[in-house]
Write a structure and sequence with these properties.
alpha/beta; TIM Barrel
Length: 253
């Protein structure tokens, strides 16, 4: 049985925790290890950690940092950024990650998703889709942290990823990222309706009502959020936070 989830999404720029707005101008937030310790205290169930520099700069995952995070984290986490081979994934699992997130490399070589699913099981593979609205309507999938356009529309790409063996879709609206204006519920519902996989909606959460909209109106099985959990309000004062168990239970029932 699948349960709805609320997942902090942490962005790394090498060893620093950062947060962007519409995938631009990442600003320093703090130290990822200290942030993980705070999430331990808040009893967070799981994390997603993505290195936004790895793929654009053709870098391998930072295995040492992942091992440090795994040593501190009380919760399972998925890692993305520079994952482009079965060997990368195997080393990440050896260092303590529970799942791998693939995006740019999967667009360039869709068979990578099949190889990962075959080697480790679909439950270990999260396929990330970053997309932006087109002026004439619909959305376009982008890769390399929003720097490269593709010919894919998100619903068709999600269907392809499902066929390849992905276990989850992590769907991010670049237009909403870091804006505190709420998720793109229409985009979320479009992809949810296209596949049988659980979809993690990301991009735009400013409050728990936005999360509720993504889960209920959008149909997502999980809501991922960055700014909501590392900033205090839209003035972007750094304050790592996470709702208490009572609020979570009320929201997820």
């Amino acid at each position: 049985m699948l349960f709805k989830r609320i997942i902090p999404v942490l962005l790394l720029r090498r060893r620093s925790l950062v947060k962007s707005v519409k995938f631009r101008n990442p600003t320093y937030v703090g130290d990822p290890i200290n942030t993980v310790r705070i999430f331990n205290e808040r009893e967070v169930d799981e994390l997603i950690i993505v290195d936004i520099n790895a793929s654009p700069e053709h870098e391998d995952p930072n295995y040492d940092l992942i091992e440090e995070i795994a040593a501190e984290a009380f919760m399972p986490f998925a890692y993305g950024g520079g994952v482009s081979s079965v060997e990368h994934a195997r080393e990440l699992f050896r260092r303590g990650a529970e799942k791998v997130v693939v995006n740019t490399a999967a667009c360039r070589d869709p068979e990578l998703v099949s190889r990962l699913a075959s080697a480790f099981g679909s439950q270990s593979v999260v396929a990330s889709i970053d997309c932006k609205r087109k002026w004439q309507g619909g959305w376009r999938v982008l890769t390399c942290h929003g720097r490269e356009k593709t010919a894919w529309e998100p619903e068709a790409w999600a269907v392809e990823l499902e066929k390849r063996g992905a276990g989850e879709i992590m769907l991010t609206s670049i237009d909403q990222d870091g804006t505190f204006k709420g998720y793109d519920v229409e985009l979320t519902r479009t992809v949810v309706n296209a596949v049988d996989l659980p979809v993690i909606a990301c991009g735009g959460a400013g409050n728990l009502e936005h999360v509720n909209q993504a889960l209920n109106d959008g149909g997502a099985m999980a809501a991922g959020a960055g700014s909501l959990f590392v900033f205090q309000g839209s003035n972007r004062s750094v304050l790592v936070n996470y709702p208490g168990r009572g609020k979570l239970d009320a929201l997820l029932k």
